[in-house]
Design goal:
By secondary structure, the protein is an alpha/beta fold. It is 17% helix and 22% strand. The strands form 5 sheets. It has a 6-stranded parallel sheet, with no helix packed on it. Strands 3-5-11-13 form a 4-stranded parallel sheet, with no helix packed on it. InterPro entries: Leu-rich_rpt, LRR_dom_sf.
Length: 298
């Protein structure tokens, strides 16, 4: 049964090959540097990638939101494997030799981006688990559930059009504990908000987060300003496109429709003093309200 599929560096021009979902024993899928395009749409009944360790879809033209349902099926990435286990991905081949037959073990090989450099793995350890979706056109928010993939070692979401905050759950990933092998990159997107202080994000250099104009805080050189009544929050690219409107200059009708009347009233009446996190939450609601109004006009 097929465990390793490498179709990288070709000229394949097509949507995401949904037939791959039938290959339930796959441990590695490499589709990098092709011409795949469009959103990755899957039905929950099709999802069974429980054994997958490596998925590399980088350098294509995929669009839409990150494939959350697909990623949630990566059960092997939720299990932490001891790093002292030196087992490698391989296959056994029966080769004829004179009148006898013997089995030869063939190790799988692959190249993966690790800390901004393409690294060649002549042997791929089972403990290596990674997702590379870089250099596509994925948009919207980073799903919070990615933090459940606790055995991820490599995560590259750079060079997309991702917005919103970096989910605090990502700080729980084991990749932030492995300085000798870990790689985390969300640079060149449209993320905004303060970095989670006291988290393991500080173990990564600023290069993992650069070119997100709305991000601030360690390890970035851009400091988050103290939030007060007369001090503005860091500006995101979406805010710049819509002028110098006040943080609290919201279209409350739109917010009420989007967030729900009961929820918003409880927030307004229950929080006369708005702290820093609340302001960032309202900032997020403001952006969602603008998107909703824009979609209605179209």
């Amino acid at each position: 049964m097929l465990e390793y599929l490498n179709l990288g560096y070709n000229q394949i021009h097509d949507g995401f090959p949904s037939w791959l979902l039938k290959l339930t024993e796959l441990r590695a899928i490499i589709l990098k540097s092709n011409k795949f395009y469009g959103p990755i749409e899957t039905h929950r009944s099709q999802l069974n990638f429980s054994n997958l360790h490596i998925m590399d879809l980088s350098n294509n033209g995929f669009t839409g939101e990150l494939p959350s349902k697909l990623l949630q099926s990566f059960h092997a990435m939720k299990v932490i494997v001891g790093q002292d286990q030196l087992e490698y991905m391989n296959t056994s081949q029966r080769l004829p030799l004179s009148l006898d037959k013997y089995e030869k073990v063939v190790d799988y090989e692959m190249k993966l981006m690790n800390k901004g450099t393409e690294r060649e793995y002549s042997k791929v350890p089972y403990a290596l688990k990674g997702i590379d979706l870089s250099n596509n056109k994925f948009e919207e928010c980073i799903s919070d559930f990615i933090g459940d993939l606790k055995s991820l070692v490599l995560l590259n979401l750079s060079n997309n059009i991702l917005t919103c905050f970096i989910p605090p759950s990502l700080a729980n990933l084991i990749l932030a504990q492995l300085t000798f092998l870990s790689s985390f990159d969300v640079s060149h997107n449209q993320l905004f908000g303060p970095m989670s202080q006291g988290s393991r994000f500080n173990t990564f250099g600023a290069s993992s987060f650069v070119m997100n104009e709305g991000l601030c805080g360690t390890p970035l050189p851009k400091k988050c300003t103290t939030v007060g009544d007369d001090i503005p929050l860091p500006t995101s690219p979406l805010e710049e496109e819509n002028g110098d409107e006040s943080l609290f200059d919201l279209d409350w009708k739109v917010v009420l429709i989007s967030a729900g009347v009961g929820f918003l009233i409880s927030v307004v009446l229950g929080n006369f003093f708005i702290d820093e996190k609340s302001k960032w939450f309202l900032y997020y609601l403001k952006i969602m309200a603008k998107r909703w109004k824009t979609s209605r006009r179209h």
